[in-house]
Design a protein that fits this description.
Chain B: One of its GO terms (biological process) is bioluminescence. Chain B: Pfam families: LuxE. The structure holds 2 protein chains of 2 kinds. Chain A is an alpha/beta fold. Chain A has 13 helices and 17 strands. Chain A is globular. Chain B has one domain: Rossmann fold (3-Layer(aba) Sandwich). Chain B is of the alpha/beta class. Classes of the chains: A alpha/beta, B alpha/beta.
């Protein structure tokens, strides 16, 4: 593969990005796979997960990875790339990328693979040792189903997925031989990996333990918003770092929080039509009793799909995979109650662009403030780190 | 105090009306004395049938310290489950009054299955396990429930968690002194420490022809992973022993301490007349008459905490009809645990 120069117009002026392929063709190859994916769902994935992957592979979404990192494509009046445009910056790939993915990691695994493939660099994936590994499964699926072309050739020759234990020598190799380290896992696991010997000019990113919540104003909580809340929550429940663990009704009353909870309980069976697994149904019964004992007002949805509790913001929390708490709070109480490791704050507010919200959140560790429907949207910036652009190093150019 | 606890007739004719009356009374008693329980079932007045009695999910005992405070109730020790699946142990507050009833209950049940002949009890555990102050493990509690049937007790393991630490010399000494022995161990420990162990020749010779009644509990999960079938398990333990040797597998939960469910000769389990079993649909909680579902266990004994009626995470099936073993009343099959699946998330759970 020969290098290709892609031109963009960033806020700092024109930039050139060095890639080992034409990025348009790689995006087109992913789009081709997307069409095949619509035919059937592999057994390793749920229908929701597969549908999300198909949506994620939308060419516009993949193109946005470049545009959000480097600016709009630099084209002439006819819309063609301008190959000879001057550049103030040249971005070159740093080199090999190593990704550590533990066993139970969600769709973030395949999503990371897809975005990193757009850098064209060698990628080594360290997978968990259990069979249900979505990233490895997706890589196999892509290599098997993609037609011959640049993407298939790249995935076959430059991307490897390996499974090994913590003490394996490859753990060291991954760190020593990579220009970029991306670690999913616990804080301790990430620290241990970044402490391994690595090139001094390499960069490391940790996507560690995070929590998210939803802020929904009483006036904004129509059925469409609450349906979105159910869909966003139901994919992973509390296990997802981007799933809401709590719904805050800012500036609301306890009655408004309760009525929102009641409406979600009514809508749940219309939105989630399948039975939960037996152990989830059982753990929801446990959670409902645990919550009641702690003083929460609790409802279990039909066929025990979820536990929805409302109560005072200072009640002791309870933990369960499919339990969602609704609390009314002043804005100050809501901010004070944010967990230290807050990641995404999904909003459905009357006017989220109100500068008051930004002023309020500026002093918090919140990393994403996005509409409810975008809570799970993975992108080139994650956990507040522009890891995708950092897969490139910058060369400054002045004439 | 339960009027149903008749130590001589644990499986005699059932008095369902009295059982319901005692369960209603016990429920009201716990509601009076346990605030957490009151929060969970604030509206309870009384139930017209067993299925309408309020229950607690067994997992709740891992999350909350449930205790009933009442006149004459002295909480003494805490019974801890083995916590092998979740890593979190259930903690049951034991009180003197209930312990007496529970000991009488267990003894009555065990006597019905292993007889009341006094003989040495050999426990596949370490004596050190007795020394945890204020706490007692499920394994020790199960072993000590056999104490009234024992002429003496010996702990066979040097290290409670190491099956290779069996004191063969002590076993050999007991074999030379007695023709009949009672042996208790957790199922997996009995297999690893005894059945699958390299038994020294002298011990093997001493075992030959002895009458041993093995009693085990704790479930088959570890042995299923090793593909050990119950028939093979039993045959391996008894092959060189006297023909009257036997193996009794019992099912029990720390959340139902005092009630155990040995497997009868026909392959079923029976609650004594002071206990009962329901099976519920996991998604609707509807009581099931013969289909598999979640087991709900209840008994009339506990006073120190509201563990008298619990929904378990074990699967079972009621079996209609009379049992050929001769025990009357409800019988059920234990099918296994509610299947767990890995929770998929962001690697942070």
């Amino acid at each position: 593969m020969s290098d290709s120069l892609a031109r963009f117009h960033s806020t700092n002026g024109p930039v050139t990005v060095v890639l080992p392929f034409e990025y348009h063709s790689i995006i087109a190859d992913w789009a081709a796979l997307r069409r095949l994916m619509a035919r059937s769902v592999p057994s390793a994935f749920t229908r929701d997960e597969w549908a999300y992957l198909i949506t994620f592979l939308d060419p516009e979404n993949l193109l946005s990875t470049f545009t959000e990192s480097f600016g709009a494509p630099l084209t002439d009046a006819d819309g063609h790339d301008e190959p000879d445009a001057p550049s103030h910056w040249i971005y070159r790939p740093r080199g090999a990328i190593a990704v550590w993915l533990p066993n139970n990691v969600s769709l973030l695994g395949p999503l990371t693979l897809i975005l990193l493939s757009l850098t064209g660099q060698r990628i080594r994936l360290k997978l968990g040792s259990l069979a249900e590994d979505l990233c490895g499964e997706f890589l196999k699926y892509a290599v098997t189903h993609l037609p011959d072309g640049a993407l298939r050739g790249y995935l076959e020759s430059r991307v490897t997925a390996e499974t090994f234990e913590r003490g394996d020598r490859r753990q060291l190799e991954f760190a020593e031989e990579s220009a970029v380290r991306i670690v999913f896992g616990s804080d301790d696991a990430a620290s241990a990996i970044h402490a391994l010997p690595h090139p001094v000019d390499s960069v490391g990113f940790s996507f560690a333990d995070r929590r998210s919540e939803a802020w929904i104003a009483h006036d904004a909580a129509d059925d469409a918003i609450l349906t979105t809340l159910i869909k966003v929550f139901a994919i992973y429940g509390q296990a997802g770092c981007t799933s809401p663990r709590r719904v805050v009704v800012p500036d609301g009353t306890p009655e408004q929080a309760r009525s929102m909870r009641d409406r979600v309980a009514e809508l749940w069976p219309q939105v989630i039509r399948h039975d939960p697994p037996m152990h989830v149904a059982s753990s929801n019964l446990l959670a409902s009793q645990w919550a009641l004992a702690l003083g929460w007002d609790t409802r279990v949805t039909e066929r025990h799909g979820a536990v929805l509790a409302c109560g005072s913001i200072d009640l002791e929390a309870f933990d369960s995979p499919m339990a969602l708490r609704f609390v009314a709070a002043s804005r100050e109480q809501a901010v004070a109650g944010l967990p230290d490791n807050i990641q995404t704050l999904g909003h459905a507010l009357t006017d989220p662009t109100d500068s008051e919200w930004l002023r309020l959140l500026a002093g918090t560790p919140v990393l994403r403030f996005v509409p409810l429907a975008r809570m799970h949207h993975f992108g080139a910036v994650w956990d507040g780190q522009d890891y995708w652009r950092q897969c490139f190093s910058a060369m400054e150019v002045h004439s | 105090m339960s009027q149903l606890l008749d130590e001589r007739r644990p499986y005699g004719p059932r008095d369902n009306a009295e059982f319901l009356r005692e369960m209603n009374e016990l429920t009201r008693y716990h509601l009076d004395g346990c605030a957490h329980y009151r929060h969970i079932c604030p509206m309870f007045q009384g139930a017209d049938d067993r299925a309408s009695l309020p229950w607690l999910h067994v997992g709740l005992f891992k999350q909350i310290n449930l205790r009933t405070e009442a006149e004459g109730i002295h909480h003494e020790r805490t019974l801890k489950s083995s916590a092998t699946s979740s890593g979190v142990a259930s903690r049951i507050a034991l009180d003197r009054t209930s312990s007496q009833l529970q000991s009488a209950s267990t003894l009555a049940i065990l006597r019905d299955f292993v007889g009341d002949q006094m003989r040495p009890l050999l426990v596949l555990d370490s004596a050190k396990s007795l020394r945890a102050r204020g706490e007692v493990s499920a394994r020790i509690a199960a072993a000590l429930s056999l104490r009234p049937l024992a002429s003496e007790i010996q702990f066979l393991l040097e290290d409670a968690d190491n099956p290779a630490s069996l004191k063969w010399d002590l076993l050999e000494e007991k074999l030379h002194g007695h023709d009949s022995l009672l042996v208790y161990g957790f199922t997996w420990m009995l297999w690893l420490a005894w059945a699958a162990a390299e038994i020294p020749t002298s011990v093997r010779q001493a075992l030959s022809g002895k009458r041993i009644h093995f009693v085990h509990s704790g479930g088959w999960k570890k042995l299923e992973a090793m593909q050990i079938e119950p028939e093979h398990f039993n045959d391996t333990l008894t092959s060189t022993l006297h023909a009257e040797s036997a193996v009794t597998d019992f099912y029990g939960l720390v959340e139902q301490v005092g009630i155990i469910f040995p497997l009868c000769a026909s392959g079923y389990r029976h609650p004594p007349v002071w206990a009962d079993v329901l099976v519920r649909d996991p998604w609707t909680l509807a009581p099931l008459t013969s289909e598999p579902g979640q087991l709900q266990l209840m008994n009339t004994l506990p006073r120190g905490a509201p563990y008298h009626n619990v929904l378990t995470e074990d699967l079972g099936r009621l079996v209609p009809g009379e049992c050929a073993c001769g025990r009357s009343g409800t019988r059920f099959e234990l099918i296994g645990r509610v299947p767990k699946a890995e929770i998929r998330g962001c690697a942070n759970v």
